[in-house]
Design brief:
The complex is a heterodimer of chains A (about 100) and B (about 375). With about 100 residues, chain A is mostly beta strands. Chain A has one domain: 2Fe-2S iron-sulphur cluster binding domain, sarcosine oxidase, alpha subunit, N-terminal domain (Ubiquitin-like (UB roll)), CATH 3.10.20.440. Chain A is built from 1 helix and 8 strands, in the order E-E-H-E-E-E-E-E-E. The radius of gyration of chain A is 14 Å and the shape is globular. With about 375 residues, chain B is α+β, with helices and mostly antiparallel strands. In chain B, helix 1 packs parallel to helix 5 and helix 2 packs across helix 5. Chain B is globular, with a radius of gyration of 21 Å. The chains are: A mainly beta (about 100), B alpha+beta (about 375). Bound molecules: flavin-adenine dinucleotide and FE2/S2 (inorganic) cluster.
């Protein structure tokens, strides 16, 4: 996602996409970021910090990491740096992501 | 001008200066620390936080012994810092690995460790492990790892909290720290002591002066007649996103910060006073980390930075009393984190020249004029 695109409004007549957020279907305009879609939906917390505090998107430009969610199984995805995509499966994240190591590789 | 208004002035409030201040305060002196400005190159704010002995002084016995003496003092020193500062500095000293992906480099390092061991006798023990042995001990170590060394006394600390805890400890012991106090000139005063001139023109009188200003000591050291020429050596580091699981090892190049992020580092370059980071070095660090522990491949790097090591010509510490002005001292080193417990204790005996003073002859700067 380039910098300029974050300041562009999605056109009024942009097509919509359907994404799934914590099991609920959400309709959003194509071309907006996932963080914008989540904020437009409710503005509710979209993750909990390691200490259990609520967070949701804040800076919208990739620096605060408050917007981390799990997208299609990938934890710690910055919602503000990710465009909505049809069929995307999003879930809010509690605490820090794991390491996934420890298996023999 | 008031002389001897402060008995001892320490120029430089990094890990080294603050540690020395603690020791002198414990010995009952009045101490003030003058620290420079935010634009200074500050190794204490950019380092890797290792409390590390493996290989140190393999070709210089006094440094090997000094380092291992520091390692032995870290547990008590860490507790004392916490008591004085009320801060958890996340000291962990459960042993550390040095991983190798190249058999020749591994053999070379094993030889260095054997030399180091010869200097230290049975006080120290390290293990040399084959790749399969390491993989048997730690799940998830990569196939490319040909072997590792392990030393039980190595460890790490949160370096930024260490710096803050040292500041708080110095204050708790009654020391004074002045920030934004860049010393531009040190002149011997008639009748003993020194006059220090600050960048804003202020003059401060002092009895003794200890120069531990890191790379900022270069000019002042020359003015006081010291021969040591300090040079910068750049290291680059990466830090990843925070993880909710613990990395199952500590190594000299890969460590997990107590807050969860993984710090990757260990490069060396001569780049003058330039502390910027470079893409190819960062890529090399990431590659190394993934070779050692492949699960790191999908862990994101969130920041990278460069920092300058404070190096003497041979890389060993310098503890020197000025030949010209006996009340001026130069204290500087690489590995100021590791050596902090000694700087905060027995170095005060050396400065005071008590009967308990350690023999630091080997670290005098006359070794550079031979
Ligand atoms: C990349 C990297 C990794 C490292 N990793 C480790 C490690 O894992 N373990 C370890 O033990 N060591 C490590 N080190 C080394 C360690 O960081 C240094 O030995 C230590 O921080 C040096 O502290 P210092 O106080 O001498 O210098 P600095 O931290 O540079 O402090 C000097 C202070 O003096 C002040 N100053 C400068 N000029 C003046 C002036 N004219 N007047 C007043 N004040 C002045 C500055 O503002 C600064 O605060 C590492 C270093 C680097 C760069
Ligand atoms: S909202 Fe700040 S990084 Fe995404």
């Amino acid at each position: 996602m380039n910098i300029a695109s974050r300041f562009e409004r999605a056109p009024e007549n942009a097509p919509t996409v359907r994404i799934e957020v914590n099991g609920e279907t959400l309709v959003a305009k194509q071309g907006i970021s996932l963080a914008a879609a989540l904020l437009a939906q409710s503005g509710n917390p979209s993750r909990k910090t390691a200490k259990g505090n609520d967070r949701t998107a804040y800076c919208m430009m990739g620096v605060c990491f408050d917007c981390l969610v799990e997208v299609d199984g990938v934890a710690n995805t910055q919602a503000c740096m990710t465009l909505v995509r049809d069929g995307m499966i999003v879930s809010s994240q509690a605490g820090l992501r794991g390491l996934g190591g420890g298996q023999d590789v | 001008m008031q002389h001897k208004s402060t008995e001892i002035t320490i120029v430089g409030g990094g890990v080294v200066g603050l540690s020395v201040a603690m020791g002198l305060l414990d010995a009952g002196h009045r101490v003030q620390v003058l620290d420079g400005v935010d634009s200074d190159m500050r190794a204490s704010q950019g380092n890797f936080g290792l409390i590390w002995g493996q290989g140190k002084g393999w070709n210089f016995a006094p440094y090997a012994k000094w380092t291992y003496a520091a390692l032995a003092k870290w547990p008590a020193f860490g507790r004392r810092l916490t008591d004085l500062s009320g801060m958890d500095i996340a000291v962990e000293q459960n042993g550390g690995f040095e991983f190798f992906t190249n058999a020749d480099e591994m053999d070379e390092f094993a030889g260095m460790l054997a030399n180091q061991q010869a200097h230290l006798g049975n006080r120290v023990n390290h293990e040399i492990l084959t790749g399969d042995e390491v993989r048997g001990q730690i799940r998830g170590i990569g196939r490319d790892v040909v072997g590792a060394s392990f030393s039980q006394t190595d460890g790490h600390v949160n370096p930024l909290r260490l710096l803050r805890a040292l500041r708080l400890a110095v204050k708790a012991l009654g020391g004074r720290i002045t920030m934004d106090a860049h010393v531009t000139k040190i002149t011997p005063a008639t009748g003993g002591g020194f006059d220090l001139t600050l960048a804003d023109g202020q003059q401060i009188g002092t009895g003794k002066v200890i120069l531990s200003a890191g790379l900022g000591a270069m000019k002042l050291a020359g003015d006081l007649g010291f021969k040591t020429r300090i040079r910068p050596q750049r290291g680059e580091l990466l830090i990843t996103e925070k993880l909710g699981e613990r990395l199952p090892f500590l190594s000299s190049t890969i460590r997990q910060v107590d807050e969860g992020g993984i710090q990757i580092g260990g490069t060396k370059a001569d780049a003058g006073m330039d502390d910027s980071e470079t893409l190819n070095v960062m890529a090399g660090l990431a590659k190394h980390a993934v070779a050692v522990f492949p699960a790191l491949a999908d862990v994101r790097v969130v920041r990278a930075w460069g920092a300058l090591r404070v190096m003497s010509p041979d890389g060993f510490p310098v503890y020197a009393q000025s030949q010209r002005h006996s009340d001026a001292y130069l204290v500087t080193c690489h590995s100021g984190v590791t050596l902090a417990p000694l700087h905060a204790s027995t170095l005060a005996d050396w400065i005071e020249n008590t009967t308990n003073a350690p023999d630091l002859e080997a670290f005098d700067e006359h070794r550079f004029s031979l």
